């Protein structure tokens, strides 16, 4: 056994059903054998946690249609210029937490009106009323990530664990594009599991697991999308949603607070390019962006996970068993053609 086997765990099986009495659907004809429809099923374990992805290859051969968001026309956007009086003020400053640009702001950070995290705040990275991925700009994301990095430094100084994420479309309570940040007094369950796996892998193989993932996926060339000097983009082996992608730092940086300007610019640039492809080529305009980071941890690596919206139902919500309709190999091939 080598470290590749620790990363790529897969169980292959097949499920047989009798076709409908009214006739077999054309999409399933290639899986028909001796009067039965025998469909291959691949079950894959996440690199870093005990969550599993389930892929029915017959189902995955169907055309993909992204869930569409029906937008409501907002009468008033509290994040647009002129409505600054409608957003809460920071108790420490008496105004915004951060404001960039005078006399007209270009970026604002201010507390969340209904916080559920310690230090919960919003970063509005554009004064323009941008409500879609098609409007995302690289320079805006550089400014946002730089601002969040500085805020995270203060949260970490209080021995808190920073959470950083962006909801776009479904899940966003305000349509105007923005990031959210905040902190917990403990490391979240999924991150704790990732960290434990990373430490165990490093001890067992004397190798950083994130370096191993990038190296192995680059060699296999099935789910590797693109890379630059600082960041590698892959579609994970066991995704939780269709066209899920990870942007992983290649240098030993485990948190935003340790990221320099080149890493921030690289993350923002690749993220912007990816989001544009998802919007223009796949009609995806609802997703979550989550930043996974652990302060000063050599076994860990800062990375962004891009999770396009999917209708999670009983299996996902109740059991954390993820059924995905688009194979990661197909997703990576599609993205690679447009990003490489």
Write the layout of secondary structure elements.
Layout: H1 3-7, E1 10-17, E2 32-33, E3 36-45, E4 52-56, H2 57-60, E5 98-100, E6 107-111, E7 118-124, H3 138-157, E8 161-168, E9 179-184, H4 189-205, H5 209-220, E10 224-227, E11 231-234, E12 245-249, H6 261-282, E13 287-292, E14 303-308, H7 314-319, E15 321-323, H8 328-339
Parallel strand pairs: 4-15
Antiparallel strand pairs: 1-3, 2-3, 3-4, 5-6, 6-7, 7-9, 8-9, 8-13, 10-11, 11-12, 12-14, 13-14
CATH-level-4 superfamily name: HIT-like
Helix/strand order, N-terminal first: HEEEEHEEEHEEHHEEEHEEHEH
With strands numbered from the N-terminus, the spatial order across the biggest sheet is 5-6-7-9-8-13-14-12-11-10
Specify the structural class.
Answer: alpha+beta
Radius of gyration: 21 Å
Number of helices: 8
Level-2 CATH architecture? 2-Layer Sandwich
What is the β-strand count? 15
The largest sheet is: 10 strands, antiparallel
What fold name goes in the CATH topology slot? HIT family, subunit A
């Amino acid at each position: 056994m080598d470290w590749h086997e620790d990363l790529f765990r897969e169980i292959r099986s097949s499920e047989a059903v009798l076709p409908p009495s009214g006739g077999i659907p054309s999409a399933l004809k290639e899986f028909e054998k001796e009067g039965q429809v025998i469909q291959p099923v691949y079950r894959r374990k996440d690199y870093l946690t005990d969550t599993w992805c389930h892929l029915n290859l017959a189902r995955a051969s169907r055309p993909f249609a992204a869930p569409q968001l029906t937008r409501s026309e907002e009468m008033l956007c509290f994040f647009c210029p002129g409505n600054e009086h409608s957003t809460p003020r920071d108790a420490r400053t008496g105004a915004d937490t951060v404001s960039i640009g005078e006399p007209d702001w270009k970026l604002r950070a201010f507390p969340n009106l209904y916080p559920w995290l310690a230090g919960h705040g919003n970063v509005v990275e554009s004064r323009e009323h941008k409500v879609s991925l098609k409007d995302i700009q690289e320079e805006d994301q550089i400014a946002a990530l730089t601002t969040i990095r500085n805020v995270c430094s203060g949260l970490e100084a209080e021995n808190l664990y920073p959470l950083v994420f962006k909801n776009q479309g479904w899940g966003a309570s305000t349509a105007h594009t923005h990031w959210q940040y905040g902190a917990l007094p403990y490391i979240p369950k999924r991150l704790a599991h990732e960290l434990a796996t990373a430490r165990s892998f490093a001890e067992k193989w004397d190798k950083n697991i994130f370096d191993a993932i990038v190296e192995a996926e680059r060699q296999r060339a099935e789910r590797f999308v693109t890379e630059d000097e600082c960041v590698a983009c892959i579609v994970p082996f066991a995704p939780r949603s269709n066209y899920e992608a990870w942007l992983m730092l290649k240098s030993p940086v485990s948190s935003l607070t340790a990221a320099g300007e080149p890493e921030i610019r690289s993350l923002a640039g690749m993220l912007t390019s990816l989001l544009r492809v998802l919007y223009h080529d796949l009609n995806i305009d609802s997703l979550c962006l989550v930043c996974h980071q652990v302060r000063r941890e050599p076994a860990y690596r800062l990375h962004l996970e891009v999770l396009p919206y999917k209708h999670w139902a009983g299996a996902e919500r109740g059991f954390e068993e993820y059924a995905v309709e688009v194979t990661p190999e197909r997703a990576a091939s599609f993205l690679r053609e447009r990003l490489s």
